[in-house]
Amino acid sequence: MEREEAERKSASRRKRLQYVVGGVLALALLGGVVALAAFGLGGGGDGGGGEARQPSDAAAAVELPQQQTGELAAAVETAGCEASSPEIEGSTHETKEFTAADYKTNPPTSGNHAPDWYEDGIYAPGNAPEIGKQVHALEHGRIDVQYKPGTPETDVAKLEALLAESEGGYHMLLFQNETGMDAQVAATAWGQSVTCPRMSDDVFDVLRTFRTSYIDKGPEDVP
Questions:
Q1: Across all residues in the chain, what is the average pLDDT?
Q2: Can you say whether the dihedral through the CA atoms of 217, 212, 142, 105 is positive or negative?
Q3: Distance CA 36, CA 92 (A)
Q4: 146: nearest Cα among 114, 112, 123
């Protein structure tokens, strides 16, 4: 009887130990899942860095010029802008710090890029998405709109309003250029570019028709 009682107590201790170990393992697993979600290691999101916001209520109230044409070529000519379809430079994901020198166009329209991408929205000056992640966003069918440093705040507000008029900036990014582009304002899609040397009312026709022509046309269909 004493031996049976000792074995019973030993078995009870083993069972309690199994519960404790199992609980620790479960917590560790849960922590790992949380970490993956936080750092975007599961294949989504911006992978850190800049933080985007959506167009403000004030932007929605900004009055923009009425659209005069739905033809991109006509809009480009009227505004004195330049549209181009550069050759695709590549699409490989690389874990490196990309710079403007890695691309043949400024701003870039394609090429090897970072594995992560930046979310849709508006980025404050000095907080522009990393260039390798900008390009990845293009691969997902996004439109990148960027303006030259020193652009008046009134013009930046109008660009924000442009995003607001299309489902709150659906599949678009707006940020200050940090690659030394010559243009005052530019819009890029995967394999497509339009650059404008100055801001004017006619530029908004260019940006609207470019958006209509190329949004969601990237090689990767990502919501």
A1: 82
A2: positive
A3: 23
A4: 123
Query: Residue 128 forms beta bridges with which residues?
Result: none
Q: Are 69 and 142 in contact (CB under 8 A)?
A: no
Is residue 221 included in any domain, yes or no?
Answer: no
Asked if residue 44 belongs to a domain, the reply is no
Q: Is 186 exposed, middle or buried (0-12, 13-18, 19+ CB in 10 A)?
A: buried
Does some domain include residue 20?
yes
Q: Cα separation of 222 and 34, whole Å?
A: 23
Residue 187 phi, psi (nearest 5): -130, 135
Confirm whether pTM is higher than 0.85: no
Supply the angle between the helices 201-214 and 72-79 in degrees, to the nearest 10.
Answer: 150
Q: Are residues 33 and 95 in the same domain?
A: no
Please write the tens of the pLDDT for every residue from 8-26.
444 445 444 444 434 433 4
